[in-house]
Write a structure and sequence with these properties.
The chain has 2 domains: 194 residues, Isopropylmalate Dehydrogenase; 124 residues, Isopropylmalate Dehydrogenase, CATH 3.40.718.10. The protein contains 13 helices and 12 strands. Strands 2-1-3-12-11-4-5-10-8-9 form a 10-stranded mixed β-sheet, sandwiched between helices. Strands 6-7 form a two-stranded antiparallel ribbon. The chain binds 3-isopropylmalic acid and manganese (II) ion. Manganese (II) ion binds next to helix 10.
Length: 356
């Protein structure tokens, strides 16, 4: 198979982990006889530094003309401490999502058995948890109208959804539920928000086409609680952009670390694959970042965008073998991990590569 992939490392540890993700794609191409060609594109703080624009048109064009994008992270602490900054790295990410029409963000919460003890949740509560989040990605308060009053003392952001936006993400989630345990939880705040009432109404309409799927509605506050109390109750979850952002960070702790979680952002065109973690400036440049989320994002890319199931499984299996061999990065190590098994980004990357 011949495919063209654009690598977009972005900021901070995005630069470090994406190198490993790309090496994994190279290894897969060599092992399975595929031909992958690559290009690189700028986004985020590095793009602002180089061009003044967090997502230059050139980057967007490269992405549009590719078969898939492997993305790292965006962000820089400089902007976090300057709320008045007009140009911000995150604008690049949001623009990429909107321009590429990436309305569905899949965040699988996959728990490797070896990491049961890396979570702060009790192993007996965790074991067997396997959740697939569908976070809507191009609507909600992220893209609604926002403004600040003339005196600067009042501000608003609009939580807004249109029916077609709910319907298309709902269909993706119901379709996925049919291939899994036929259980879907829709998360909203319909006891308070009008946009959530539209959300729920639409979910109920789409549900008519999926009579086999057992549908449950939860308010987001209750869902946040159940996620920690009884994560096994979840199978497929569908929710809006903001609730999904928050719940998936929470759910990352089920997998032990944010450093383990991959995501796929898909829509009608090119798909973008990325770790759910951010740019990690506290550990940038130290060579200790966990590259597994990027590696597992590459696995999702192979599976979802290219339909290469065996190749994708080979990658996941290699990560599993590395964990079984006892190797850990710092974020997933615990008191029982021998010092010589705690590896940096490149070294654990090599362990993964040698097992593909
Ligand atoms: C994510 C991130 C982004 C988001 C930030 C960096 C804008 O937290 O991908 O989850 O809020 O969507
Ligand atoms: Mn987030």
């Amino acid at each position: 198979m011949k495919k063209h992939i654009v690598i977009v490392p972005g900021d901070g540890i995005g630069q470090e982990v994406t190198v490993v993700g790309k090496k994994v794609l190279d290894k897969i191409a060599a092992k399975f006889g595929h031909e992958f060609t690559y290009d690189e594109a700028l986004i985020g703080h590095v793009a602002i530094e180089a061009t003044g624009n967090p997502l230059p048109d050139e980057s967007l064009e490269k992405m549009r003309n590719s078969d898939a994008v492997l993305f790292g992270a965006v962000g820089h602490p400089k902007y976090d401490n300057d709320p008045s900054a007009k140009v911000r790295p995150e604008q690049g990410l949001l623009k990429m999502r909107k321009e590429l029409g990436l309305y569905a963000n899949l965040r699988p919460i996959k728990l490797f058995d070896e990491l049961l003890s890396a979570s702060s949740i009790k192993p007996e509560i965790l074991k067997g948890a396997d959740i697939l989040f569908f976070r809507e990605l191009t609507g909600d308060v992220y893209f609604g109208e926002r403004a600040r009053s003339a005196d600067g003392n009042t501000a608003y952001d609009t939580m807004i959804y249109s029916k077609y936006e709910v319907e298309r993400i709902a269909r993706k989630a119901f379709d996925a539920a049919m291939t899994r345990g036929k259980k879907l939880m829709s998360v909203d705040k319909a006891n308070v928000l009008e946009s959530s009432r539209l959300w729920r109404e639409t979910i109920l309409e789409v549900a008519k086409d999926y009579p086999e799927v057992q549908l449950e509605h939860q308010f987001v506050d209750a869902a946040a609680m159940i996620l920690i109390k009884d994560p096994k109750r979840f199978d497929v979850v569908v929710t809006g952009n903001l609730f999904g952002d928050i719940l998936t960070d929470e759910a990352s702790q089920i997998a032990g670390s944010m450093g383990m979680l991959a995501s796929a952002s898909i829509g009608d065109g090119t798909g973008v694959y990325e770790p759910i973690h951010g740019s990690g400036h506290d550990i940038t440049g130290k060579g200790v970042a966990n590259p597994m989320a990027s590696v597992l994002s590459a696995a999702l890319l192979l599976d979802i965008s290219f339909g290469l199931k065996a190749e994708s499984e080979a990658v996941i299996n290699a990560v599993d073998q590395v964990l079984k061999a006892g190797f850990r990065t710092r974020d997933i190590a615990d008191a029982t991990t021998p010092a010589d098994k705690i590896l940096g980004t490149d070294a654990i990357g090599e362990e993964i590569l040698s097992r593909i």
